[in-house]
User: Fold this.
Amino acid sequence: MTLLYKADPERGKQWARLFAQKAPEIPFRLWPDIGDPASVRYLAAWQPPEYSVRTLPNLEVIFSVGAGIDQFDLSGVPPHIAVVRMIEPGIVEGMVEYVTQAVLTIHRDLFDYALQQRQRAWREMPVRAASSRRVGVLGLGMLGSAVLERLRLFGFPCAGWSRSAHQLEGIECYAGVESLDAFLARTDVLICLLPLTGATRGLLDKRLFGKLPMGASFINAGRGPQVNQQDMLDALDRGRLQNAILDVTDPEPLPESHPFWTHPRVRITPHIASATRPETAVDVVLDNIRRHRDGLPMIGEIDRSRGY
Ligand code: NDP
Ligand code: OXD
Assistant:
């Protein structure tokens, strides 16, 4: 009944310590030291080993160590193997911090002040009230809804867009492709927190940017391939977009020669918006293992037909 961990080795050591403390009865292995492949029932991975299904003949559950599962090629994973994404408070806290700082950076004109600083220019800009800056989040899941709940407290008019209908206190909720344009038309700061699926790949393109108010800003903490990069650059150069803060790109790492690095209106962070915290994640995985053993549904088990 071994759990095999295959992700960041340093964090793996923390997972090993926590498993030893909290569940000594579950043998824990750190990739590539897999021991007897037949005893591996659980795999916790960012990217699973190639051919994991064939290499690990008794695998029952793949736990993603991240909130997203798009990095897995599920086409080769038979339906009897459950795939579970990470739902844990550490990821949520990190994302709320990241997006809040990004929205405030835009709201308080820090892009422009950074440009002014290079010119040693001491020049005030009028401060806009939060109530006049409309924030909109693509994705109303674990992360999107937590981010909106926090941003609302600053007084920003907040809205979110999702596939199915939601009701969230103080948030204007839009659902489905037919409501996307109306959501975009009322959004001054657009934040993407969608999973990468067939339906969201390339979604942020010329057409979509064209539906935003002139001079809107964009924050992407979802996945890089959701954005048509040339369309985003064109939107920035035409002033349709004023600023972009990107935590995710395509590819990652972003190549040295990529125009995003030097664009004065683009800020890049290397996919650090939030990360699983071992202390909280191990509890979640252990709880799910217990549920699986008891025949109960696991928290975060993905719906393969939706792709997230
Ligand atoms: P959830 O699965 O909880 O939520 C996804 C949301 O997106 C849901 O509201 C869902 O709608 C909506 N959605 C999915 N597909 C569509 C679509 N085609 N049209 C409209 N809405 C859609 O995911 P999380 O909030 O936990 O995470 C979101 C993503 O954030 C992850 O998949 C990952 O890519 C990214 N992420 C990035 C990190 C970083 O460090 N940059 C860290 C962690 C995650 P509905 O509610 O109707 O199902
Ligand atoms: C995740 C991520 O999906 O780190 O958790 O991007």
In short: Residues 22 and 283 are 8 Å apart (CA to CA). The first strand starts at residue 2 and ends at 6. The first helix runs from residue 9 to 22.
